[in-house]
Design a protein that fits this description.
It holds the Pfam family WD40. The protein is mainly beta. The protein has strands at residues 3-8, 19-25, 28-33, 37-41, 47-52, 58-64, 67-72, 76-81, 87-93, 99-105, 108-113, 117-122, 125-131, 138-141, 146-150, 154-161, 168-176, 178-184, 187-191, 198-202, 211-215, 223-231, 234-241, 245-251, 256-263, 268-273, 278-283, 288-293. The protein has a four-stranded antiparallel β-sheet with strand order 1-28-27-26, with no helix packed on it. Strands 2-3-4-5 form a four-stranded antiparallel β-sheet, with no helix packed on it.
Length: 294
């Protein structure tokens, strides 16, 4: 398999400032940036719609059914129409909070902030909250009612139950490591505390998330983004960051092996996997490309 840049957002259409998050959902790509805008793109990276969503940075995006969700450091969480980006609702507004990450789990939206609190919203209404004592820069959820969150010191694993009138939760593990993180098959991948190595744990609650392997000094500079996929029966992890190098790794229960590198002309800030071996890569100054894996 090889990596090849197959499409790029035009200079006129791209974000003005750094991209903070990109999300692939229902055949379209959504991007949020420090310019406060959300843009929706075709898979060929033709711009289809955009909106000035927040007065400052858009930090994270999530989607559920027919709505797109965004959060910002100005303390709001908003919902948008998937097709037109017409604003639907403001779910939360708190001028003392910076919402850094959002994710869906079992039909509920979870939002992590700069103080280490995670708020939950059911049917777009506040449902409950809990704290993990560490600011939340990245989040992921699985099909086992589990939230994985990380910042600069630890990856925290929390079990959450949303079936009752009040939210229930319990801490399952805290592991040395930092954002970014990614789920790849039955494995949890994240960065070491120095930001340069890749650590792999098994996503298994019964075994208490055992450590599987580590790739030391995977990058020369800090890793900013990870994205996982299963391609042709193999668990694949993509990593990139400040060294302007995109790397593809094969991950199994015993090792993580380098498969291919690609040099880029920009610092990578966020990646996400699309369909049919497509990887979308966002970066500094609004650069956005599609990399095809063939």
């Amino acid at each position: 398999m090889t990596l090849k840049i197959a499409a790029q957002a035009s200079e006129n259409d791209k974000h003005e400032w750094d991209i903070n998050h990109i999300l692939y959902y229902k055949g379209k790509l959504y991007s949020g940036s420090d310019d406060g805008k959300i843009k929706v793109w075709s898979t060929k990276l033709n711009l289809e719609a955009e909106v000035q969503a927040h007065p400052c940075s858009v930090y994270y995006l999530a989607a559920n059914e027919d709505s797109l969700y965004s959060c910002s450091n100005e303390g709001t969480i908003k919902t948008w129409d998937l097709e037109t980006l017409k604003e639907k609702n403001t779910i939360d507004q708190d001028e003392n909070t910076e919402f850094w990450a959002i994710a869906f789990l079992n039909g509920c939206l979870f939002a992590g902030d700069q103080s280490g609190n995670i708020r939950a919203y059911k049917d777009n209404k506040f449902y409950g909250a809990f704290g993990i004592a560490e600011p939340i820069k990245d989040m992921a959820t699985d099909n086992n009612s589990t939230i994985f969150s990380s910042n600069i010191l630890d990856v925290v694993i929390t079990k959450v139950y949303v079936e009752r009138e009040k939210i229930q939760y319990g801490a399952k593990a805290s592991i040395d490591g930092k954002a970014p993180l990614a789920l790849v098959g039955n494995k949890l991948c994240f960065s070491s505390r120095d930001g340069k190595s890749i650590i792999v744990h098994k996503n298994d609650e019964v075994e208490i998330y055992p450590r599987l392997t580590e790739q030391k000094d995977a990058h020369e500079l800090m890793i900013n983004s990870m994205a996982g996929a299963t391609l042709k029966g193999e668990d694949i992890l993509f990593t990139a960051g400040w060294d302007k190098t995109l790397k593809r790794w094969r991950v199994d229960d015993e090792s993580i092996k380098a498969v291919e590198n690609m040099s880029l002309s920009f610092v990578v800030t966020k990646m996400t996997v699309g369909d049919d071996g497509q990887l979308f890569v966002g970066g500094e100054n609004g650069v956005l490309v599609r990399v095809d894996v063939s």
